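My current task is to audit a protein record that another person submitted. Thanks in advance; the entry in question is below:
***
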Amino acid sequence: MNLLENYLLSLQVNTYNTSISQVIEIQTRIWQSIHSGSSYAQAMLEVLEVVNHSPQQQHQALLKQVLQLLGYSAQSQVDNHLLIAHKRFSHVLNLS
């Protein structure tokens, strides 16, 4: 298993159900992992080379990686927004 898969497991996302609520749950868990100093989050931040960036930038970098692993597409937008898309839906997520 690679580092990203280990990080996903550490987030304890136990069900895979493509939905806005899943994206929001993942967003919340990533934010919590950054603020709690999770060793899995820290390792991913180092790999993504965003350790010295703001927490918001770290959050966005981790969120994009995790969502892509789960089959979503994620594109940065202006004003700290992230366009999340899947075969069944698309949604703009405000990361502020």
User: Anything to note?
Assistant: DSSP finds four helices and three strands in the chain. Residues 45 and 51 are 5 Å apart (CA to CA). The chain has a mean pLDDT of 87. The beta strands are 73-76, 81-86, 89-94.
